[in-house]
């Protein structure tokens, strides 16, 4: 994202100072930003996740502000969200504490509007440059995915890498339109994310390759439960993205390339998994090739399924 295209971003404000909140709301909405706020410290992380904000502006006086910074950095779905801390001008120690807790930047109070806007734009631009976040799901994109895989390989740690893909999504997207298709993609992203949060660990990773393709990384001990949970939840919820008449028909009717009407069943989900549990994985290209082959094999089944590579040597 270029620096001059950041005004469409969502900014999340956390302060209990009503006057300060009103000032920020007027300032940010006047610049075209989407404004969200929370008066609930305990529910802040969930609200921040749900609203997919691009920047968090956090008042140092907000309850447990430093703990919030630390929790965001420990949360794999939020850890890349820039945090700008609002501190009193003379409180140098608060600035230091904030940076060590995980804040990316700070702005001094009383706030200078021009300086704050510049810091917001710089943080959004830097985050998107480094993260290459998918604009729909806000999840890390291809560059970040490759870097994460390479980091796991170099650290010699055990890991499982899974490739998630939807079956019959293209036909669905063509039939229902992009808005319906985008909703399915966002639903799938949230489903996988919540499953990793529930059954995985804070070291897990989730990335969005593009379209209906996702990559996640977890540990061997969790992979089977995670895959089973994703499939169970997807199969239970996907029908809510179809019209009633199509649910009764168990799918949609579309024209194929030959111009003939054919039945396309309700979408299912395929997961291919490779791991270095039984053999070493030494190169990013090797990992991507293996997991793509497994995902492609999983898609040959006419149902939701996961395939885990247990081959040795």
Quick overview:
By secondary structure, the chain is α/β, with parallel strands linked by helices. It has 11 helices and 12 strands.
Q: How far apart are the termini?
A: 43 Å
The percent range for helix content is 40-55%
DSSP summary: helix tally: 11
CATH class of the largest domain: Alpha Beta
The portion of residues forming beta strands comes to 15-25%
CATH fold label of the largest domain: Alpha-Beta Plaits
- The pLDDT mean sits at 92
Largest sheet: 5 strands, parallel
Task: State the shape.
Answer: globular
Can you put this structure into words, describing what you see?
- The structure is a single chain.
- The chain is an alpha/beta fold and 313 residues long.
- It has two domains: 3-130, Rossmann fold, CATH 3.40.50.2300; 142-308, Reverse transcriptase/Diguanylate cyclase domain (Alpha-Beta Plaits).
- Helices cover 45% and strands 21% of the residues.
- It has helices spanning 18-30, 44-50, 65-74, 92-101, 113-131, 142-154, 169-176, 178-199, 220-237, 244-248, 284-298; strands at residues 10-14, 34-37, 55-59, 83-88, 105-109, 160-167, 205-210, 213-218, 251-255, 261-265, 268-275, 305-308.
- Strand 7 and strand 8 (213-218) form a beta hairpin.
- Helix 8 (178-199) packs antiparallel against helix 9 (220-237).
- The longest helix has 22 residues, at 178-199.
